[in-house]
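INFO batch 0412 | record 1 of 1 | parsing
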Amino acid sequence: MKTKMIISVSMVFMLISIEIYSNPLSNDIKHETPLQAVINEFDRQLQKDLSDDHINGSISAVIVKGNQIIWSKAYVPSDKAKNIAADSETIYRTGSISKSFTAFLMMQLVQDGIIDLNDPIEKYLPEIRQLDGYSDSTKITFKQLASHTSGLAREPKLKDAAKGPIEGWQDKILLSIPKTSFNSKPGVNQWGQSH
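INFO prediction complete | emitting tokens
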């Protein structure tokens, strides 16, 4: 009798399992799409990384498919002191991450024959001549900029050079040029990161 009962209970569980498996759109069980599963895992991982790494900053993330934003979320206030929440519209200083994009785009220009790595920057950006200490012996090439051998100081001596509205960035960059100096002569293989 005990064996029959175990077999009967087992068969009921098998039938329930088969029903659930064969009818995934059951109202009782919600299944996430593979895309939603990836997004949820990405969200969990970002939260974990922020917690584990003790990042004292804010992150906004977005996933774009085609030309549509399919997910966005912000983590941690963008300004803790003023308790300003970050959101998908928060503008951050890009810092060094922009170097990867710049290098990629620069190499596309080289590949298309528009520029040469050994061209002097002043050929395309004459304002570069305003650099503090610029002369015929300190001309900078694209190759030197890309390899961090331009000799430029890390930051310009312009107050709040990395702050301000996005609409003013081009002007801010041009204002930074005469406030940027050389730490060494360009191309002397003295590596030095500059922004």
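INFO post-check: Residues 31 and 37 are 9 Å apart (CA to CA).
INFO record closed
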